[in-house]
Each structure stands twice: as C-alpha cells, then as structure tokens.
Fold this protein.
Amino acid sequence: MEILWFLFAVIMIGAVLGPVLLRRRGGIRQVAPGSPDAADPANYGFLRQEELDIRMPGPDADLLEVLDLVQRTQEWKAASQLLAGTETHGERRWQRVQAFAGAASLELQQRPGGVSDNPGGQWLRVWRAETPKDAGGAAVHAEFLVQQAWRTAAQGTDEFRIILEEAKEACAQAALLSPGDPVPYIIELSIARGLAYPREEFEQLWLKILDRAPAHMGAHLAALHYWCEKWHGSRDLAYGFAEAAAARAPRGSLLAALPLFGVYEHLPEVNLVRGFYESEVVTKAVEGALFAVHSARADDPMLAHVRHLLVFFLVRSQRWSEAMNQLVHVDGHVGALPWTLSEDPASDYAVYRALAVAGYEANGGSPATLPH
C-alpha cells in the first residue's frame, strides 16, 4: 500500500492529520474532515490531540497530584514524602525522580529570572537547602543537573562538561545518602554518555546497578544509549547488549522488549522502505516486545514505554489490528519514545494513531470489533 506511505510522508512534512482518512477495504485515501466515510479516532474513545498528556508515558495519579501541588504552591514537602514512600529498587521511583527533575528544569527554562525574581524550580533549591540529607531531594537534584546539561548546553563544550561534572558529584552524594539505591547510578549513566567514560569505567558503573537492580528496565534503556553507534559503541555492541539482557530476563520482565529499542536507535536515515519493517531483525524484535507486553504485570511502570514503541513499529509494519490493541492501553499519555523526540509529541502520536485507525478500518475493523 505505497499510497499510504506517500500520504504519511506528506503528513510528516507539515500537515497535521485529523480524522480525514477514508475507510475502504484494500486502500486508504485522504478525504475531507467530517466526511461520513472518515476514519475518526474519537469513535474508539481516543482523546483529542490537544487533550493528550505529554509529561508521562502512562498514568501515575499520585505523581500528577503531587506535581500539580508542588508547582502551584512551590512547596517541596509533598515531593519528598512521595519519593520516601516509593520503593527504592523499583521502576516507579526512577520515573518519579525524572518527572520532578524535569518539572524543575522546565520551570527554570520558562522563568530563568534572578535570585529576587523567584526563578522557576526554586522549590528544588529550597528542598536541597533545607534538607541536605534527604535522599530523594539529592537524587532529583542530580537528575536536574543532568537534564540542564543536555537541555541548555551544547555537547562537547566546557559548559556542558562542567554541568555534568557537577551532576557526577551530586550523584555520589545521593548514593551516600541512600546505600543500595540504584537511582543515583542510573542517573550517572547519562553522565557517562555525555562525558564519554572509557568502557572499563562504564562497565564498573553498570556492575553497581546490576548489584542493586539487575532487571531494572529503565537502567537498561539508559545504558543502551552508551552502546549505540551514535555514541560510544556500535550497532553490534548495542544489539548484543540488548539481546543478552533479553535472554537473561526473568519471567514477566519487560527486558525481552529491549532489542526493539536497540533497533529503534539504529533505524536508517531513510526508513520508509516497505520491506524494512518486515525484515527478520525488526520482526524478531517486535515479537519479543509483544511477548514481553503479554507476560508483564499490568501495573508495570515501564509497560507504557514498550507499548508506545510498539505502536510506532506496528504501524510502520502495517499491522493495524495489533497497533490498535496497543493504542487502547496507552491513549491519553504520550510522554515516551518515539514521540518525545519530536517538537510536538502529541501531533506525531496523533498521526500514527490516525494511520492505525485508517488501516484497521480499511481492513474491516470497527469499534465493535476492537477488544478493550
């Protein structure tokens, strides 16, 4: 269905795809919005593009409540309490640390100000100043510095290195405050990538994480970047790392999906070739991710990350029904790969969602036939 990919390319150039795709068995073509033949994502209960939450990959009601409170009142105590009550070795603590750090970083970007101007993220500085031995605050501060380096400084510059060196020291302090906690070392993985740790030093850091949380999916995703071709490894090293992790994954672990992330990190520059997404390497990685999703706990905090990447690959592979099965689980939140790499994550996600709906209906699907 080359016409579908022609349409996709046109859309990605700049058009925003709404409910404008005609349902027709065996083909898809563009029609006017509001046409009775249009494939409308709203028919499936999907949220409108402007209602999509770009902050997180999936719901975390407690985190959202505390984030809103902290940003509204500029009081940090609720954030500290939430992290103190979150399991140290779990995926959710890592995600919450990232969320708080990201919120402070974005606030500072929006309101740089001065000392007397109440700059954004002031609540994090007060948190660290008032409770310097709070392990949660120390971890959030370390992650905040990492995000500041990658967001505000050009890679390879003195400014970039100085901020990451400061973040490295903050990670060491956070680790001392919470022995056995993998999060400070997971934060350091991004520092290792930015400062180009030698492989021996990186592997020593990785062993500290394996000692504390050997099946931590978030840690594996962060480490995978280091081994990628565009950083300090190669395609073979990245695939080897991902496949080894998948092979030793315990039952119910999402690590079986790691090879799909490795494939994504090494997509060719021009990847609209029809056969690529039906190739053995892609098909094997997709099947591994589907297996991981089916066997994982329904409340696994990393499950939404895998589902979002599956939507991308399943749509590209024209596996419409399977893409729809993932969409019904993640719609509403788009703070995950691949959407977060876009300047407008909600728009990119909406494009793929509309294509999935159109392909599904073009092949006989309907809201009545889609399981929830």
Notes: The longest helix spans residues 91-110. Strands lie at 21-22, 38-39.
